[in-house]
Structure prediction request, 109 residues.
Amino acid sequence: MTSLQKTLYAWNLLEIKDKELLNFLVGREGGKTSIMILDLILQKPYNKNQLARQLGLDYNTVTYHIKIMCAHNYITAEKFEKSVFYYPTEKFNKVHDEYTLLKEYVLNK
Prediction:
């Protein structure tokens, strides 16, 4: 068993069914930033400027993460007047429990 497998076993993450979500959050360095953005979007819809200000991140960083999350279909965009707001998708809502486990792992590793 590799050290990664041992770690995943210790955190009870081998049972994660959505391997795409596992790779998205654990398998890349931007996982923590994506989690911060997702957590805000789960509270209420935000646009990119609001997310950047709220998190103290560069607008381009937020744009990069939003693009990836939209490509994975974890969030979706809706235009309202002159702004585009982001919402969690049904796909993301279905894996929310797994997201919570992965989030705890990523933020504590």
Remarks:
- The chain has a mean pLDDT of 90.
- The radius of gyration is 14 Å.
